[in-house]
Design goal:
Blueprint: E1 10-12, E2 21-27, E3 35-43, E4 46-51, H1 54-59, H2 73-81
Bound molecules: zinc ion.
């Protein structure tokens, strides 16, 4: 039987001490009390997103011939909430 999914609540960190960097906490969709850290880093007018989940780690090689990364579901969720 499939496990019911948990709502992926996005919380924006209250303190973002590093200029250009915003941190979001995204609840795990499958594991209770687990959160991922998503960071939005804006530098030289370019924005990059990072997440500490395994999915993002496995995807983080840029697409062939481009500079873009494919994003995990936590980043997609944080982007919509940002
Ligand atoms: Zn992620």
């Amino acid at each position: 039987m499939k496990k019911p999914l948990i709502r992926m609540t996005v919380t924006r960190a209250k303190r973002n001490p590093v200029k250009g960097t915003t941190t979001f906490y995204v609840d795990s969709e499958t594991t209770r009390r687990k959160r991922y850290f998503v960071q939005r880093i804006t530098k030289d007018r370019k924005t990059q997103w990072f997440c500490n989940c395994l999915d993002f780690f496995n995807r983080k090689l840029p697409h062939v011939h481009t500079n873009t990364f494919s994003h995990c579901k936590h980043i997609r969720r944080a982007r919509r909430a940002a």
